[in-house]
Structures are given as C-alpha cells and as structure tokens.
Write a structure and sequence with these properties.
Layout lengths: L3 E6 L3 E6 L9 E8 L2 E6 L3 E4 L2 E7 L9 E10 L2 E5 L4 E2 L4 E2 L4 E7 L5 E6 L8 E9 L6 E5 L3 E4 L7 E10 L16 E4 L2 E3 L6 H36 L6 H4 L1 H5 L5 H5 L3 H6 L11 E4 L8 E4 L10 E2 L8
Family: Belongs to the type I cytokine receptor family. Type 5 subfamily.
Membrane topology: Single-pass type I membrane protein
Protein name: Cytokine receptor common subunit gamma isoform B
Length: about 325
C-alpha cells in the first residue's frame, strides 16, 4: 500500500490521502497526527471516504501550521490484524499548491508589443512565482517564460496570427521548496489586431453577435409593431365597421319581450294618459226610396235616439 500524501491547497485547507481508491483493501483506517513542537496526538476529525472506506483526511485552515514538521500515523485494522501505513516527516510549506491566476488581461502597447497582467489568489503574493506560456495558431509547441511579478511583456506580435496565453503559479524558493504548480489559468487570446474572449472568438465579432444583433432585432420588431398599429388605424378610417343593431336591441326583445315603453323607460302614468277612457254610441244612417210622385226621403238615427218621423230631403236640381 502506498504511503500518505498531503497537499495544502492555497493555504486554505489540506488533504492527506493514502492508498488507491480503486483497489483500497476493506479495512478500518484511522489517521493520527501531531507537530514536532506540539507532541499531543490528535485523530482526524473529517475523514474522506470512497465506497464507505476511509481513504483520506481533510484539515481546515486552523489545523495547518506551516514551517513546522508535520507527522502522521495511519492504522489499518481488519479483524484482529492491524497494519501501519508507512509515513515520514513532512514540512507543510513545501506541500502548498496555489490556485491558478485569474483576471488575465492583454493590453496592446506601442511597436506591436503586448503586456499581459493577472492577479494571483494566493494570500501571500510575495511567496509566489509564475510561468507564462503562449503559442500562435501556427505553432505546435508552447513557449514558456518564468516571471516573478504579475506582468509579462511580449516583445513582438504578428497581426496575422492568433495567440493564446496562460499563466500558472507555485511557491517560490523564499517561502518553500516545492514543485507543485497550480493548474493553468483560463486562456486569453489575441489575434488579427483584436483581442478575443475566453472562447477564442474575436471581440468585435463577439459584440456583434451578443449585443448588436439583439439590439437591432429589437428595434426592427418595435418598428414593425408601430407600423402595424398605424396601419390598423388607417384601415379603420377608410373602411369603418358597419354597426350591428342586433346587440343594441337585444335587451328589448329578450328581456322586455318587445315592450318598447318598458324598454325605453316611459313612465306608466304617461302611457295611461294616452289611453282613451270614453265610449260613443253607434249612429246608423239609411236612405228610403221615394214612391211615385214623392221626393226622396232619408231616414237617419241620431246618437241621442230615434226621431218621431221621417225627414224629407230636398234636392236643389236647379243648383246642380
């Protein structure tokens, strides 16, 4: 079985792992640790497990003491048998692995020069050194330069090429002795006299695709909506809709059953004032044929009752 390997990640936490997680023998593993000048032995408080078997231990920032000799002891118990995993003294300042740099920025200087800057997340920046690697789209191998600060000047660029830059960090010789480099940073690009985003796409094209096209599309859509509204108004002016009276008189026929006075709200006393409240007797008029030698006589009945005798009707023939 392999020994215990510890790594301090950016001075924030530490992990100590043992064995191989894939073929770790089934056993009960226990880790104990202490520092040289603090002989008190402490068992691991937070075990890391794989398939229910302890395979490592996680240490918080408060449990890490740099520049002190760190010692661990791991027991593997299986039934009545106990096996001790071989360990050795460790200096934690030599086991620090910083986080990769962030915020990489390229600035175009005069005479076709580039200046690359970045920020390191390691809390003690004076203890970190960096390495910059770059290559163009026409190169197959990377070119690597060591840098002590957080600036790198690229002497000359070919505007017809596209360049890729990355940076990584490790603890320098003044704060430790280690070969644990951080991971390479997110790449930054430069080419064709224009910067690129982290995906390698030229920034002008990137802004056209992500900003200009959506804005222009929104403006065109707004113009079309305004034109549609105005065309609808013009259509209403030149082609007005014919009103439908059925909806207007729907209440008259459905609710008031055709009663216009009730639908129109005419007062009942006004309606009754137009109703006749008198009666008139019927008057019959008849004409009697004259006998020979007599003038025509008309028999009539007045509304007040019958007369006592016929009234002769004289015709003024001379007046005709």
């Amino acid at each position: 079985m392999q020994g215990v390997k510890c790594v301090v990640f950016n001075d924030e936490y530490m992990t100590c792992m043992w064995g191989n997680q894939e073929d770790q023998p089934a056993a009960n593993y226990s880790l104990y640790y202490w520092y040289q000048h603090q002989p008190a032995v402490t068992e691991c408080q937070r075990y890391l497990q794989h398939n229910g078997i302890n395979t490592g231990c996680w240490f918080s920032h408060s449990e890490i003491k740099l520049f002190q000799t760190f010692r661990v002891h791991v027991n593997a118990s299986h039934g009545s048998r106990t096996q001790v995993i071989p360990t050795y003294d460790m200096k934690l300042q030599d086991l620090v692995k910083p986080d990769p740099p962030v915020n990489l920025t390229l600035q175009n200087m005069s005479n076709h020069q580039l200046q690359l800057s970045w920020h390191t997340p390691y809390p003690r920046q004076q203890c970190v050194e960096h390495a910059v690697r770059y290559r163009s789209n026409k190169d197959t191998d990377w070119t690597v330069h060591g840098v002590n600060g957080q600036l790198f000047s690229f002497p000359s660029v070919d505007e017809e090429k596209k360049y890729t830059f990355q940076v990584r960090s490790k603890i320098n010789q003044y704060c430790g002795s280690t070969q644990l480099w951080s991971e390479w940073s997110v790449p930054v690009y430069w080419g064709n006299t224009m910067a690129h985003n982290s995906t390698g796409e030229p920034l002008p094209r990137y802004w056209v695709r992500t900003v200009l096209i959506p804005v222009v599309s929104g403006v065109v859509l707004l113009v079309l909506v305004v034109m549609l509204v105005r065309m609808e108004r013009v259509w209403v002016v030149f082609m007005p809709q014919v009103p439908n009276p059925s909806k207007t008189f729907d209440e008259l026929f459905n609710t008031h059953k055709g009663n216009f006075q009730e639908w129109a709200g005419v007062p009942k006393d006004m309606v009754e004032s137009f109703t006749p409240n008198y009666s008139e007797s019927i008057c019959h008029v008849s004409e009697l044929l004259p006998k020979e030698g007599q003038e025509p006589v008309t028999d009539s009945w007045a509304p007040l009752g019958p007369r006592s005798g016929p009234l002769p009707l004289k015709k003024d023939i001379g007046g005709l």
